[in-house]
Amino acid sequence: MTSPSPVEVPQPVLDLARSARRVCVLTGAGMSAESGIPTFRDVQVGLWERFDPMELATPTAWEDDPEQVWAWYAWRATLVRRSQPNAGHLAVGEWQRRQGVRLDVVTQNVDDLHERGGAHVLAHLHGDLFALRCSRCGASSGAAYPELEEPVAALEPPPCDRCGEPVRPGVVWFGEALPQEAFLAGVEAAQEADLVLVVGTSGLVHPAATVPHLAGARGVPVVEVNPRETEVTEAADHVWRTTAATALPALVALLDT
Ligand code: OAD
């Protein structure tokens, strides 16, 4: 039997990571892919395979058919609850706890896998799947998604305690504005960093996609971790074509050596 070959960390990436006192890790759906959460560009399977997530995550879809949209989010919430943080999430948490380094996590993900992996998240740019609020009056809601054994095509959203209108997921849909405070905090964290690590994002969705560019324009080194070429690639100083759960633990393990 042969033992698996150790992951090779590109030397320039390791040098940057070792010397950085302030790091910004900007993550997208690829960060959670190895926890079993499908990315937005993955083909969906089963009940939802005929649907495009980009068409379900919109205010129009909600207006047309809230029961369908609620059922889709309830299924995504079920997948998130069933999943575990992967080695990449754990490595980010470990790096954040190191002495002498400030590491800010800025994520487009609406799941809670960074938090469950032991990291504090500075900014959830696209909101929080579990922070439900009223679709009309905006009041935050104590309601929760139902536990599903399997996906269903339609589910009635719970009513708001205050006004009785349907409660919606606490996420940013296409065409909606990002939470201003989170976005500004994310931009600042990236611009003030000594290193921005962009992990698992296609860089297609704005304005989140502008964050690495804004940092790069200030001269902050940008490293992309992604198995594929993306819209971030051109702005990156270094590109590491591997997955989050491979790259991050390998990198963090070498910080002290
Ligand atoms: P996407 O689904 O657009 O892109 C996922 C990226 O992750 C792709 O570039 C993949 O190559 C990469 N990837 C896949 N598996 C990976 C792995 N194991 N490790 C590292 N990278 C991997 O996801 P986002 O860029 O996050 O917005 O999408 C941005 C936004 O579009 C989402 O936040 C969501 C979505 O619609 C809203 O809901 C507003």
Care to describe what's here?
The protein has 257 residues and is α/β, with parallel strands linked by helices. The protein has two domains: 1-36 and 84-128 and 178-257, TPP-binding domain (Rossmann fold), CATH 3.40.50; 38-82 and 133-168, no CATH class. It has ten helices and eight strands. The protein has helices spanning 11-19, 30-33, 53-56, 59-64, 66-82, 87-96, 113-116, 180-191, 210-217, 244-253, and strands spanning 22-27, 102-107, 121-124, 127-134, 167-171, 195-199, 222-225, 238-240. The strands form two sheets. A six-stranded parallel β-sheet has the order 3-2-1-6-7-8. A two-stranded antiparallel sheet has the order 4-5. α6 (87-96) packs parallel to α10 and α8 (180-191) runs parallel beside α9 (210-217). The protein is globular. The mean pLDDT is 94. The structure holds 2'-O-acetyl adenosine-5-diphosphoribose. Residues 28-30, 33-34, 39-41, 54, 57, 108, 126, 171-172, 174, 199-202, 204-205, 226-228, 230, 243-244 line the site of 2'-O-acetyl adenosine-5-diphosphoribose.
